[in-house]
């Protein structure tokens, strides 16, 4: 892939090869790596657009990671076609099989209508794709009829016990067998593939996904009748051309996945919106009912959550934690507990106030220990060990203090316990204040009492956070303030109202929560996807932008390649392809004549229309994962010039791939054989009664060459003294060429039988520079693994002693007269032997 630096405008990929082609300008299938590269170069301005691109890039990276190491037959070297087997398929009831040379070249299968050519072609296509229809999911147009199309093919042969099609592909020592089995109604019931790797491992092939897109983007089988019948409208042409852009399985899957995730997030968001609307209505009904029946109680309205909110936090804030929640309440027990706690503290403080002063309890235990030590000291003296002054009776004073501490300590501990209980109970005051705030009071005294109580409760808690439960002076002052504020008539009235309001509020909140159950279920189920709705909507826009960019670039490149093929086929009649514009539903194709006047497609003749539909396919054939191209009746309505022009294109393509042509048109056969140095011709015939299709070689090139040699011997005029080559030299040169072609065919058959790389073996023998060495090379190749007789040994026994003379004759030497007819017959016998040898 060619990477261009410095992106330009927002959303633009710089012009150049970009993602549309490889180094040779081929429209290859896009991979996830290609998509990641394209997405990385896209720019965005707005924050939400940046988020969309980042999300798209992350998704592509995830898909790329998931596909690392996945076996994909569309990657790597291209597949050649080795053979076909059919049974009970279309025109053949009996089992039919054929071997195909997968190396580059031309194979022509000719025969009259009804001989089985289309059966073979359709069998290959059906086995490759695993379905009986066209490559894409487009159905044949039915017009206004509600019945099946009149000309739709019946794929299962009549009265056949079984029906299946099987094709075998090969590359670099690997083999891929694809098979589909048809049901009684002629549809594919089972389709599968087995991939035998070069190491001998066999694995199952997924005939969907990437393989399907490879077939759609680079269809290796073309049937004009099928294409013409299905491309009738602008949207049909749009699908036909869009598939040939070969955007690939990765691109299609990414588009579909983004759309799926976006739609799923939007659907979740819609569900939540609908549930929220229903929840609001239900809560409004609950609130309306309580406000009518309980006008003195007011519960705050709900502030509804945003899609990104934590629903549990939201429930807690609105006291809706669960259906049985009593989150905010004041009961009679709470009020009584607060009163009791205040009374207990008040009694403890009164005891402390009535008792004499008490030294800090913190040093009481130390004083006790000091006293126990002091009574054991003799003499004690009159110096006090605490204040270091003269006190004659300091031991007696210490004894009194210790005894007083022992009496007063329980009173002090009682006060600490009472303060601890009050500290817990004082929280209730805040609850009361919160509930009171929800009540519509006209009595300002109650409001003031509750506010004062709440403030004093907070003050007491503050000092107790510092002093703890010790009855310090600040604690006593805070207690007295709280006690006094809760001892008023207004407070008692407010407490009673709070208890009543609390019960009503609990019921109100419980019914609110019950009204929200359906909403909460939907929220919890859908929120994770729903909150990504906006992001996925933006991601979908970014994916669409990327898709438009890729389609536009590939369309431009495709147009250049298709125009080249249109010119090759139609330039003599002045028809040119000026432009292609694809939308999501239509294809707008601009065609003009030699004068620059725009033409409507409907103005094209039948032959021109055929050429126009064939050109796009021919323009992308070299880019796909298949090193073969099969054409069924490609010269429908062609004139002589069109036949010759197509033959030229096909021979050009055959230099790097196997081109297989099925035709009843003898003109195409003749033109191809005349142009192709590597052409083979086969006659196709069918026994109508038995339903058997058979093929036989009619014009193997070595036979054609030897027939030409025989004609020269028979009909050649008297030798001319000015001729460049003599009769004998020409005949022997033809014998040598025949041997070379036969050796080529022998190596192909041997490679197929031994599961070796056909293209590699053929290239190796073709690289040897003379016939003698090629024969020796073939003999060595075949003897390496083939046990028993070697056909090259038999070949040498028949005509080996002629080879040197045949080789010299090509270069103008060895003009000695001989029995040329005998040499021709020996060449024919030897070539027939090695091309018919059974290597199984």
Tell me what you see in this structure:
It is a single chain. The protein has 840 residues and is an alpha/beta fold. Among the domains are: 259-320 and 518-531; 332-515, no CATH class; 700-835. 54% of the residues lie in helices and 11% in strands. The chain contains 27 helices and 15 strands. The chain has a 6-stranded antiparallel sheet with strand order 2-1-4-5-6-7. A hairpin with a 4-residue loop joins strand 9 and strand 10 (587-592). The longest helix has 46 residues, at 248-293. The protein is elongated. Mean pLDDT is 81; it is low at 1-24, 138-145 and 323-327. Residues 1-22 are annotated as: Disordered. GO terms for molecular function: ATP hydrolysis activity. Keywords: DNA damage, DNA repair, SOS response. Residues 85-133 form the Rad50/SbcC-type AAA domain. InterPro entries: P-loop_NTPase, Rad50/SbcC_AAA.
Which key phrases capture this entry?
11% strand; 15 strands; Rad50/SbcC_AAA; six-stranded antiparallel β-sheet; DNA damage; alpha/beta; 840 residues; ATP hydrolysis activity; 54% helix; elongated
Chart the SSEs and their pairings:
Elements: H1 32-40, H2 47-66, E1 80-87, E2 96-99, E3 105-110, H3 117-129, E4 164-171, E5 174-182, E6 188-196, E7 202-205, H4 209-217, E8 221-223, H5 224-230, H6 234-244, H7 248-293, H8 311-317, H9 332-354, H10 364-374, H11 394-425, H12 427-437, H13 444-467, H14 473-486, H15 489-515, H16 517-530, H17 533-570, E9 576-582, E10 587-592, E11 598-599, H18 606-620, E12 628-632, H19 640-653, E13 658-663, H20 666-675, E14 679-687, E15 692-697, H21 701-715, H22 727-753, H23 758-766, H24 771-785, H25 791-799, H26 803-810, H27 820-835
Parallel strand pairs: 3-13, 3-14, 8-12, 12-13
Antiparallel strand pairs: 1-2, 1-4, 4-5, 5-6, 6-7, 9-10, 10-11, 14-15
